[in-house]
Amino acid sequence: MEHSTFQEEAIEFDPQDAGTFFNRGVAYYGQGKLDLAIADFDRAIEINPQDTYAFNNREVVHMTQGKVDLAITDYDRAIEINPQFTKAFYNRGFLHKRIGNPKEAKEDLVNYLRLAESIPEEKEWVAEAKKALIEIADE
């Protein structure tokens, strides 16, 4: 499915709307158009350098492309912008676990749990983070 004409019209109407670039980046990612997704997330970040979600989603594309260092850099920046951004701790923790950095994985997952355990919407992810910590301890 192609991204909507609405997004194109919105960008033409207001080329400084970071949200429109973000949404189109998500659409491009869903279509497997990774370079276009990166370009739109880059543009969203250029317009709004404090957009932690744009950093987070750009990281997902970097991971899909196998660019682990760029992914970690995006997570680092998102956490620097918002030290309460649970998704970044969660995702970076699992990334560190996947690439064999148990110390960093544990630190991120513990930080994630500290922030997210009392948030009902995070219940499923809290359980996954606890399970991952047990797996790290068993390694």
Q: Can you describe what's shown?
A:
The structure is a single chain. 77% of the residues lie in helices and 0% in strands. The chain has 139 residues and is mostly helical. The protein folds into 2 domains: 1-66, Tetratricopeptide repeat domain (Serine Threonine Protein Phosphatase 5, Tetratricopeptide repeat); 83-139, no CATH class. It is globular.
Task: Tell me the layout of helices and strands.
Blueprint: H1 5-13, H2 18-30, H3 34-47, H4 52-64, H5 68-81, H6 86-98, H7 102-116, H8 123-138
Helix pairs in contact: 2-3, 3-4, 4-5, 5-6, 6-7, 7-8
Total tally of structural domains:
2
Q: Can you summarize the main beta sheet?
A: none
As a percent range, the share of strand residues is under 5%
User: Mean pLDDT score, rounded?
Assistant: 90
Q: Count every helix, treating DSSP H or I runs of 4 or more residues as helices.
A: 8
Uncertain runs are none
Listing every helix as H and every strand as E from the N terminus to the C terminus, the arrangement reads HHHHHHHH
According to CATH, the fold-level topology of the largest domain is Serine Threonine Protein Phosphatase 5, Tetratricopeptide repeat
The CATH superfamily of the largest domain is: Tetratricopeptide repeat domain
**Rg, nearest Å:** 16 Å
Class computed from helices, strands and strand pairing: mainly alpha
Overall shape: globular
Determine the fraction of residues in helical runs and give it as a percent range.
Answer: over 70%
CATH architecture of the largest domain: Alpha Horseshoe
Strand segment count? 0
| Ends distance | 43 Å
